Amino acid sequence: MITVKYFAQLRQMAGKEEDQFELGPQITLDQLSDAIGSNLPKIGELVRDKKIMVSVNFDVVASDHIIQDGDEVGLLPPFSGGI
Amino acid sequence: MSTTLQPKVRIQREDFSVTDEIEALKKSSKNIGGLVVFLGTGRELNKGESIADLNFEHYPKMAEKKLDDIRVKAIKDFNIIDMSIIHRIGHIDIGENIVLIIAAGEHRKEAFVACEWAIAELKRTTPIWKKETTTKGEVWVQSTP
Questions:
Q1: In what order do the strands lie in the sheet with A59-60?
Q2: Number of cross-chain residue pairs from A and B with Cβ atoms under 8 Å apart
Q3: Chain B contact set for A9 (CB, 8 A)
Q4: Are the Cβ atoms of B144 and A76 closer than 8 angstroms?
Q5: Angle CA(B68)–CA(B71)–CA(B75) in degrees, nearest 5?
Q6: What is the complex's ipTM, to 2 decimals?
Q7: Is A55 domain-assigned?
């Protein structure tokens, strides 16, 4: 099971805080973006087009990162902490 | 003043006391000779828009981890003695405290550099998001210089 977390404007677009997907032991980010896009096409597109950062288990990863079963994936809009 | 020892990196809803945080950090070492404080507060105008209030949210665990990383790297790379980083989340009114960074060093120079680096690094690497409520509605801020 892969858990996908939505934050800020992505959470509002998704209408929920997270999704869970059963996609096998290892998948690419493109495969995950297809799974997300099946229900949330705009968010799937943002991930596929690398318009947002992606974290896996709390670290930002490159687009060729392989996601393992059990991972927590964060979809991260541009940060705006501080002032 | 609270006698409870608080972690030096925190993300919290409640306000903080700048004085208490300075006093707590000063207890780290008797070699501290200079402290530089950056305090970020909610401002009323952004790009000409009047802001009614602010709302911050974060990615729990990841945001704390990134702030911890910033503190550890600042102490190591800038040769300061200690650092505190506190960021508030949730609803924040204009004028209220948002973020506090205190760099403590033997001398002022390294503390100034470390403090400026830490706030820039916080904005670059830490998953915290700001939503502004303006007269035109709610806006998720994309980034600020």
A1: A18-21, A2-6, A72-76, A53-56, A59-60
A2: 74
A3: 129, 140
A4: no
A5: 145
A6: 0.93
A7: yes
pLDDT in tens, A66-75: 999 999 999 9
Q: Given A8, A59, A83, which is nearest B129 (Cβ)?
A: A8
Instruction: Find chain A residues with C-beta within 8 A of B62's C-beta.
Output: 55, 58-59, 74
Token couple for B49? 């828009």
Closest to B62 (Cβ–Cβ): which among A8, A55, A83? A55
Tell me the C-alpha distance between A37 and A60, whole Å: 21
**How many structural domains are present in chain A?**
1
Smallest Cβ–Cβ distance between B144 and the set A5, A55, A80 belongs to A80
Q: How many CA atoms lie within 13 A of B87 on its CB side?
A: 27
Q: Residue A32 falls within a domain, yes or no?
A: yes
Domain assignment of residue A71, given as a range: 2-76
Chain A's closest residue to B131, CA to CA, is A8
Residues near A53 by Cβ (< 8 Å), separated by ≥ 6?
A60, A76, A78
Tell me the per-residue pLDDT of A8-23, one tens digit each, with 9 for 90 and over.
999 999 999 999 999 9
Element at B78 (helix H, strand E) = helix B62-78
Q: Tell me the fold of B9-140.
A: Aldehyde Oxidoreductase; domain 3 (3.90.1170)
Band (pLDDT 50/70/90 cuts) for residue B4 is low
Residue numbers in A near B122 (CB within 8 A):
81-82
The alpha helices in chain A, defined as continuous H runs, are 8-14, 29-39, 41-48
Q: Is residue A82 part of a domain?
A: no
